[in-house]
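call fold target=chitinase
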Amino acid sequence: MKLLLLLSLVAFSLVETKYLVCYFSSWATYRPDAGKFTIEDNDPDLCTHLVYAFAGLGWNNEIRVLDPYNDLCENYGKCGYNRFTNLTLQNPNLKTTLGVGGWNEGSTKYSEMAADPAKRKTFVDSSIKLLKEHNFDGLDMDWEYPTQRGGKPEDYVNYISLMKELYEALHAEGMILTAAVSAGKATIDPAYNIPELSKYIDILHLMTYDLHGSWEPYTHHHSLLYPHPEDTGDNLYLNQDFAVNYWIEKGAPKDKLVMGIPLYGRTFRLKNDQDTGIYAEAPGPGGAGPYTREAGFMGYNEICEFQAKEPWTVVHDPALNEPYAYYIPNNNFWVGYEDVDSVGVKAQYTLDQGIAGAMVWSVETDDFHGTCHGSPFPLLHKIKATLGN
Ligand SMILES: *[C@@H]1O[C@H](CO)[C@@H](O)[C@H](O)[C@H]1NC(C)=O
């Protein structure tokens, strides 16, 4: 009898669906040529949760629609929110949420709103109203970050009050609350009361990427799973394994934690064409990609299309689980990124750790046309298959 019970428990845990939380950058509809990605380019069967990035916060403390023309139907708009939540008509198990915040929103307004109970109520009430109007299944709080970037020390306490009030109001309406949270120890320590936050959250999206980049004077991989052999000092904290274990050690429940995997690379311009490894001197970012058009950043679709056209050197350093590549004729360009193998290793890591699954930033920089791989979304398919969904 005991054995039967044990066997059925094992069988049950084997069929349990892992979370695959996918961010969607709504502004990708403005990208040129093959980089343009609209709502209907999403595959509603790949992810368990799709997050619409982003809404913002108004000075009146209400949630704010950032691009009314693209997001809303009014005034001959493109109905982005409604088309997005309508993706659940194709997959009733899919949850769609609205992300509020993001890097560009900064922290100051959020800090002021969270400090005042009346302002928090305005934000919570306006959020519920907007989510219901557009059939979202919940809210994803992307305040980057409490206590940082214009925030104040009291955010540590006020953020929890905000999340508690949001969680209770959302759950009363049958909706969920998730949050994108930092993977950097230097931010985690001042920003998050992890045991309290864990009570008022459905899923914690660990942003285990952008751990290095062209703001530093040397090349490094921005989403490495384990430390590089040459890492010392605080750089020993800047890897995915550290961040996952640190969140768990500080009290995050494994069944609410998902690890972020970037579908993009961070780029550099090498100083010296003979010095091309990790910790090579790099005085600045690599040039902008044709679709994402931002120096220092390149989508996997752009990276793989470049590699198909030009003789890039792709390096699989045995000390790393993820590739980097460089091409000297393109102004000493260097990029650390993820490929099909590395995202598989990372999805497997989430299984081995027993956490709730994976998150990606973001769907529209996968090879979504299948230009390089012959079939669309090779990275997302690999993650989904590895998670066993
Ligand atoms: C969403 O689906 C509903 C039900 O089929 C439909 O009436 C509505 O027009 C759709 N909205 C958009 C913006 O496509």
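return ok
Residues 79, 82-83, 86 surround 2-acetamido-2-deoxy-beta-D-glucopyranose (CB under 6 Å). The chain is about 30% helix and 20% strand.
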